[in-house]
Amino acid sequence: MSPTIYTIILSTLATGTIITMTSYHWLMAWVGLELNTLAIIPIISTMHHPRSTEAATKYFLTQAAASALILFSSMTNAWNTGSWDITQPLTSPSHILLTMALAMKLGLAPLHFWLPEVIQGSTMTTAFIITTWQKIAPMSLIFLTMNNLSTSVFLLMGLLSSLVGGWGGLNQTQTRKIMAYSSIAHLGWMATISSIMMNILIMNLLIYLIMTTSVFLSLIISKSKTIQDTTSTWALSPTLTIIMLLSLLSLGGLPPLTGFIPKWLIMEELILQNFNLLISMMATSSLLSLYFYLRLTYTTALTLSPNTTQTKFKWRFYPNTSTMFITTPATISIFLLPMTPLILL
């Protein structure tokens, strides 16, 4: 793809997200979501392969269906109330349709089936965009309409997403699919707290974006598409291997790393709200996610691929990918836990 066209597409992607985040009219929010969808489809299909074409088709169908549901729910609400304002209270059928549409946009269970397949059919960079930037616009709509959405439905979807994200990633060998199920599990935690404490939701989303950025940049630089590929990262770059190792453990929510902050605060808030059974099940499901993070960590740090030479480092060319951009997200995703009291203030 031409650099000029790629720049235009990325600008359209950013514009769509900003329009959705800043709009208070349902039609403008819908236009922003459509710009987002239409901009990401050429990026998904840049790799001339049947898998990428299939991924682009699946992404288009699911996102178009979700956008149609959002438009239909807003039209139904405008018909009943006479207002297109996003903050306007929604009628009974409208808020159910909107909940389902936003869940499909994000990839929450049980409307998650498209996400692993689309990410597996995309390049690593495209998968990074789908699991990070593409979550911001639907999350902003949840933030604006949370008082009108069903709390019980979001709690149920959060629990299902946490379970599906844990179970689904256990038998995966492709790093992109592992990151897809990781995204589903983290979205489950965000959906659970979204109806209770909005400040924790925003902090959870920011920490998730930073941790996922750190892990994806590590995978992109080391060109690790499968678990087997991670066994050679130590020979390529020991420093990058350590960053990947700690970022994966942080993504799993292991203390004393940054990823423990959102789980700690969400568990504390749900216990205060007397959701004891719910948080017990979600904490148990997070152990499933931690298992496949530990499996990736084991192959990355504690195993070595077969070598034909006696040296432990490989001969390698100067890397084409700049490692400058990984330093900030890696530092934040590893060392932020001691600053939790300052964040809460």
Automatic annotation (TrEMBL):
GO cellular component: mitochondrial inner membrane
GO biological process, one term: mitochondrial electron transport, NADH to ubiquinone
Signal peptide: none
Xref: InterPro entries: Complex_I_Subunit_2 (IPR050175), NADH_DH_su2_C (IPR010933), NADH_UbQ_OxRdtase_chain2 (IPR003917), ND/Mrp_TM (IPR001750)
Class in the EC hierarchy, top level: translocase
EC assignment: 7.1.1.2
Subcellular location: Mitochondrion inner membrane
Domain NADH:quinone oxidoreductase/Mrp antiporter transmembrane: 23-288
A molecular function GO annotation: NADH dehydrogenase (ubiquinone) activity
KW Flavoprotein (keyword) present: no
Membrane topology (UniProt): Multi-pass membrane protein
Occurrences of domain NADH dehydrogenase subunit 2 C-terminal (ranges): 290-344
Transmembrane segment boundaries: 59-76, 96-115, 152-170, 200-221, 233-254, 275-294, 324-344
Reactions catalysed according to its record: a ubiquinone + NADH + 5 H(+)(in) = a ubiquinol + NAD(+) + 4 H(+)(out)
Pfam families found in the cross-reference section: NADH_dehy_S2_C, Proton_antipo_M
Keywords of the record: Electron transport, Membrane, Mitochondrion, Mitochondrion inner membrane, NAD, Respiratory chain, Translocase, Transmembrane, Transmembrane helix, Transport, Ubiquinone
Record's function text: Core subunit of the mitochondrial membrane respiratory chain NADH dehydrogenase (Complex I) which catalyzes electron transfer from NADH through the respiratory chain, using ubiquinone as an electron acceptor. Essential for the catalytic activity and assembly of complex I.
Similarity remark: Belongs to the complex I subunit 2 family.
Stated name of the protein: NADH-ubiquinone oxidoreductase chain 2
Organism expressing this protein natively: Anolis carolinensis
Source species taxonomy: Eukaryota, Metazoa, Chordata, Craniata, Vertebrata
